[in-house]
Design goal:
Cytochrome Bc1 Complex, Chain D, domain 2; five-stranded antiparallel sheet; four-stranded antiparallel sheet; 542 residues; 7 helices; binds heme D; globular
């Protein structure tokens, strides 16, 4: 039986009632082999798939960070085998959804059946639907011309409260909670506008919120839904001969539909949709779902660097003339995920995590430089840059697939012999997601969020830049949840991190002494994940 699906995408997420499901066609191996699911169970499974699985396996289940799990392949496995994998996870990095308590036994059984059905194709989303969702809550001319408070917005932190559908703004100086704002379903990242006046948030449901930090209490002043599934957003940062684009544009990277959406930076009015459906960089075969992973704004040109995951292309998109759009398409590697600048902000360092490689793009010459292996599934977040006593300027990444931090040379001008070569490696407490440093700091902070051994994901490890090979100092920072993601304050002398669970905490450390300065708790701290300091985000300091 081939099934055309419940209206989960359009109903559960709210606003797009007019959208229709697109039939898949007959892809089922044999009608008898496919386990029966009621309409209700199918809808429930679709939501769980979107929430927990599609990020790695793709909406169409063709695979990226996780393998291809098409119905044809899944029908070759028994339901018991599938259930076990979903419940316990795999050595290759798939979380054990049952083991960690994020899915019940019944839900893992449901998902085992669901993946033996053909993947439902979600609806498209164009400018008209986006415009219908667009809200200007405080018009531009009704917003204050200067801050309505005497706090330093450049040292504000934006914190995601993932499962509460909220975001918190905290004053980095006083460490006081200033406001908790409704930001919608599972916000993935915050980015600050070029001047630091606004925070933008992007949720997995493709909803963007614009938060004005000038008002007495930070306020959502505009919102819009740009896609059905998204992870990235950035802003226009360029000011120079081609024009002043500070705070003028934002761009969303969608997972589904596979597209970029350019927005007015002050109102979030959607201006242009750029589809990413195209061919893979190597085999030149059409891919129906090339998702937009990292987007990083250039400081030196009117360009966004856009990583297209499934095709392995990096697009340099010139936003100075949206009607006559110029774009450089650079063949890089599949499957691109996250990354950030080297210290000079000329080279973009991107993880092609399923190829175990880092890719280097030269945004000045607008071309591919090289790619090299670092370990199993590199995942740098935005990365970390520092000066190594022996190898000069270096950058580094953590890994999803193994507990390892890999350091590589990133100064082709001053240290060409080490550039884009692995120069140091150290074992960590387990597979991790993020590392962070700051030019004012002697340290590199590393998490091990995906570590499987009891308690290891609650540890923090800190390496010394001057004595990296001596190994880290590690300690257990929490007795519940998982430690995830670090961010420095504006001065670069404190490090903020999250204890990620429903009784979440924020821990603030003195970067020099590694002593805890403050632990913030409260009912509002539900599943804190990522956090961004305005100044460091504006200036890409990491
Ligand atoms: Fe993320 C960055 C995608 C899971 C927290 N994550 C990113 C970026 C992408 C991405 C493409 C880069 C954005 C940019 O720079 O423009 N993340 C994905 C996934 O596809 C994946 C693997 C699975 C999914 O279903 O979403 C995934 N990410 C997670 C998590 O489970 C995390 C820990 C918590 C959550 O929100 O679900 C998580 N991702 C983050 C954070 C960043 C991020 C905190 C930004 C790091 C930074 O320093 O800027």
């Amino acid at each position: 039986m081939s099934r055309i699906h419940s209206n989960w995408w359009s109903n559960a997420l709210g606003c797009l009632l007019l959208m229709a499901w697109v039939p898949l066609g007959a892809q089922v191996a044999s009608a008898e082999a496919v386990p029966q699911l009621s309409e209700e169970d199918f809808g429930k499974a679709e939501f769980i798939y979107f929430d927990r699985c599609s990020g790695c396996h793709g909406a169409l289940r063709k695979g990226a960070t996780g393998p291809n799990i098409s119905d044809e392949k899944m029908l070759k496995k028994t339901l018991i085998e599938l259930e076990e994998v979903i419940f316990d996870g795999t050595e290759a990095g798939m979380p054990g959804w049952g083991r960690t308590g994020e899915m019940t036994k019944a839900e893992t059984a449901l998902m085992a059946k669901f993946v033996q059905h053909p993947a439902p194709i979600p609806p498209e989303m164009g400018l008209k639907a986006m415009k219908e969702s667009h809200k200007i809550i405080v018009p531009v001319d009704a917003r204050p011309a200067k801050p309505q408070h005497d706090r330093d917005i450049q040292n504000y932190f934006g914190f995601i409260l993932r499962d509460a559908g909220k975001g918190a703004i905290i004053d980095g100086d006083s460490k006081e909670l200033i406001e908790v704002l409704d930001t919608g379903f599972a916000v993935h990242i915050f980015r600050a506008s070029a001047t630091g006046r606004y925070f933008y948030t992007i949720g997995r449901d493709g909803v963007v919120n614009l938060i004005d930090l000038y008002s007495d209490k930070p306020k959502v002043v505009a919102s819009v839904r740009t896609c059905l599934d998204a992870r990235s957003i950035d802003v226009s940062k360029y000011k120079g001969p081609k024009g002043d684009f500070e705070d003028s544009l934002a761009v969303v990277g969608c997972y589904w539909p596979p597209q970029m959406v350019v927005l007015d930076g002050q109102t979030l009015e959607p201006k242009k949709v750029i589809s990413t459906r195209s061919s893979t960089y190597d085999t030149n075969e059409y891919h129906p779902e090339p998702r937009v992973a990292t987007i990083v704004a250039s400081h030196a040109d009117s360009e966004w660097v856009v990583a297209i995951k499934e095709t392995g292309m990096v697009w340099l998109v010139d936003y100075s003339d949206l009607d006559n759009l110029k774009m450089t398409q650079i063949a890089a590697e599949r499957f691109l995920h996250d990354g950030g600048w080297d210290a000079t902000k000329r080279y973009l360092l991107l993880a092609a995590n399923m190829r175990d490689q880092m890719v280097v793009i030269d945004t000045k010459e607008k071309k591919f430089v090289t790619k090299f292996e670092t370990g199993i599934k590199p995942h740098p977040g935005r990365g970390a840059n520092w000066i190594d006593p022996e190898y000069g300027p270096v950058s580094a990444t953590t890994h999803l697939g193994e507990g390892k931090i890999t350091v590589f040379g990133s100064d082709p001008a001053g240290h060409p012999e080490h550039a884009w070569k692995v120069v140091r490696e150290q074992e960590t407490m387990g597979p991790g997601l993020f590392l962070k440093t700051h030019p004012e700091s002697d340290n590199i902070w590393v998490d091990s969020t995906l570590a499987k051994d009891e308690g290891d994901n609650q540890k923090i490890c800190v390496y010394k830049k001057a004595a990296f090979d001596d190994g880290p100092k590690c300690w257990k920072a929490a007795d519940h949840g998982k430690i995830v993601h670090f961010e420095y304050n504006k001065a670069g002398n404190e490090v903020w991190t999250s204890v990620w669970d429903r009784k979440g905490e924020i821990i603030i450390y003195d970067d020099k002494t590694l002593k805890e300065i403050k632990r913030i708790k409260g009912d509002w701290l539900v599943t804190p994940t990522g956090k961004w300091n305005v100044y460091n985000t504006v200036h890409d300091i990491y």
